[in-house]
Amino acid sequence: MYPDHAPHVPVQRAVKVHQPTPYPPAVPAPAPIVPVQPGALPAVVSIVLPDGRVVTGYAIEPTRPEPVTVKPAVSSTAVNVALGGIGFLAVCGGLLLLTSVIAALTALITQLIILAAVIFGGWIAVQLFSTSGHQGGTTVNIRKAVIKRNHFHG
Q1: DSSP symbol at 142
Q2: 67-96 pLDDT per residue, tens
Q3: Which of 49, 91, 131, 142 fits 53 for a cystine, CB–CB 3.0-4.6 Å?
Q4: CA distances for 66 relative to 60, 71, 73, 89, 120, angstroms
Q5: In angstroms, rounded to a whole number, what is the distance separating the alpha carbons of residues 17 and 19?
Q6: What percent of the chain has pLDDT over 70?
Q7: Cβ–Cβ < 8 Å for 42, 59
Q8: pTM above the 0.85 mark?
Q9: Cα three-residue angle 77-83-85, rounded to 5 degrees
Q10: What value, to the nearest 5°, has the Cα angle with vertex 138 and ends 117 and 142?
């Protein structure tokens, strides 16, 4: 990190230590004295711990949880049958949709083949029956024909 020829001396800096400033303790306001009936005071209980210490405090009754309403049990077989029925209906719906798509594609392809046949057949018919343009083969106009063999001259 440092070149070999450059001596390195660590820099010493003065450290300033900050001591925390203690805050004076907050003095709680005295609680108002509320007159209580003597029977309403809870009983004071003292407990001796195993190490000899004594803990004194008020006895508190444990809170009782609300009773849980019993739900009717649904058997796992019924759940499995219901899920199987839902799965079966999903598969049937998918197959019905698949057959509908296949039928639609078949009809589309059939119509495209028929359309191509009609267009190609029409083009062939126009080529065969048109009288204009260049035609292959021999065209004979009978009214103006000159038949040399029978010596017919028109």
Answers
A1: G
A2: 887 776 788 888 889 999 999 999 999 999
A3: 49
A4: 18, 15, 20, 42, 85
A5: 6
A6: 68
A7: yes
A8: no
A9: 100
A10: 110
For the record, the structure tokens of 101 come out as: 């798509």
Q: What's the rounded Cα separation, in Å, for the pair 117 and 134?
A: 25
- One DSSP character per residue, 76-102 reads HHHHHHHHHHHHHHHHHHHHHHHHHHH
Whole-angstrom Cα distance, residue 127 to residue 80?
A: 70
With CA atoms as reference, report the closest residue to 58 among 46, 72, 69, 68. Answer: 46
Model pLDDT for residues 139-151, shown as the tens digit of each residue: 555 665 555 555 5
Give how far the C-alpha of residue 119 lies from the chain's centroid of Cα atoms, to the nearest Å. Answer: 48
Percent helix / strand / coil, the chain, rounded to 5? 40, 10, 55
